[in-house]
Request: fold
Amino acid sequence: MNCTRYERWIWDDLEGRLSAAQAQELRAHRQVCPRCQRQWEAARATYQALRALPRHRAPERLIQQVRARIQQTAAPKPVFAWWKRVALAPALGILAATAWWGWMALNSNTTAPAVATTASQNAENWVEIHEQLELADWSPTPTPRYFITTGYTR
Reply:
C-alpha cells in the first residue's frame, strides 16, 4: 500500500488545511492502514501537546529589532534606477535617428535613382567576385600566394 500521500496529509488534517474530500479520503485510509492510523494518533498527541503549551510574548525590543531588519531587507535598494535614466538617452537617440532616416527616405526624390545605381554597382561587384572565385584554386589550407596577395599573416 502506498501511503506517501496520506503521510503528507496528516499534519494538514490536524491543522484543518485539507478539503472535505481529502479529509474523508484520509479517514477512510486510516481505517484500513494501521501504520497511518498510529502516525496520525502520534501527530495528534504532539499537536495537542504543542497547543497546550503556554504562549509567551517576545520582548518588545526583540520585536522592534526584527521589524527593523525586515523593513531593511524588504525595501529594495534602487541599484539600477540610475541605469534606466542612462539607458533612456541612447534609446531616444536611436528612436530620433530612425524617425529622421524614415522621414528622409519618404520625402527624398533622389533616393530611388541612388538606390538603383548602388544596387547595380553591387550586382556588378558580386558578379566580379563570383568570377574570381570560380578561377581561384581552392585548397583546405591557405597557399603562400594567398598570404602574399592579401598581406594576411597568422
Q: What stands out?
A: The mean pLDDT is 81. Residues 68 and 74 are 10 Å apart (CA to CA). Helices lie at 4-14, 20-32, 34-52, 60-74, 81-107, 111-135, 144-150. The two ends are 71 Å apart (CA to CA).
